[in-house]
Amino acid sequence: MYGWICAGAFLVSFAAGAASRFLIRPSWAREYDVRMTDEVGTVEKDLSYGPESAEKFDLYLPADPGRQGYGLVVYIHAGGFTSGDKSDDAGRLAWLCSQGYVAAGINYTLRTDQNGASVLSQSIEIKSAIPEVVKAAEAAGYPIRNMAIGGGSAGGTLAMLYAFRDAKVAPVPLRFLFEAVGPSSFERKDWHSYGLDKDTPESRAAAAGLFGIMLGQKIDPSILDTPEYHDVIKPISGYMWVTPDSVPTVIAYGTHEKVCPFDSSRHLVQALKENHVPYEYFELPHYGHGLQNDSRIYRMYMDAVKEGLAKYLDDGDGKDADAE
Q: Where are the coiled-coil regions (predicted)?
């Protein structure tokens, strides 16, 4: 029972933390959050990528059709894996469109106690959505040459799973990943803000319960901290999929993070470093899961995202920008 209580507390606080990220916004953030107008482009809403009611995406098409090729940027919404919607990111997606990219916001089946959706099932939905996004863009007259993927919080986790785990099956080359405060690992000892680091039967049961919900299958507490556990949890552990061939990455985490414990981000940073993946890491010393502190550093993160997109995505004339 304690494990399920802990899991419920995590999912509630994670969703609330994700909400604060959008409610508390510095004035400069307006540069990265624009209103969709005819001058920016058009939006095709609620396009289906699968049979489930949640399997829909919105496609943002820039107001300059007829180019030989376009970069696609997918941005995945936050919400603690239990809430949120692609419409929450309308301003961010419109900004991406205003920069000349085809942009897409993707919904996925949100977890409830009834449906048993998990991080794993959600990541599989995102994987299945990408080819449909590319097809829809091309049907609208916007041929896609390459792509980037990003997200925040839960969306950050789903973005990194696609980038590190599934990029090899992407319908177009994946060039770039950006994400903020997405859990990249599920090591019990890192999740001390929930008391999961304590070596007691209760804390081990809580860890197995929480991580089992995230994975979508029951985890035996006795295998925690063992190589067997690492094999079991790998499907949803983004850092475990990093290789020397992984795409350039920009990430941001706060040292005061309690919702997605800061220590869990260290594995991702270390994996990027050990595999010599080009990356920029922004550590915010007064920052938790929201945007209320360290505005200057968070702006540096967003500026790095903008620069990374310009560097690694298609230049708009059918030639890869990073091939020059």
A: none
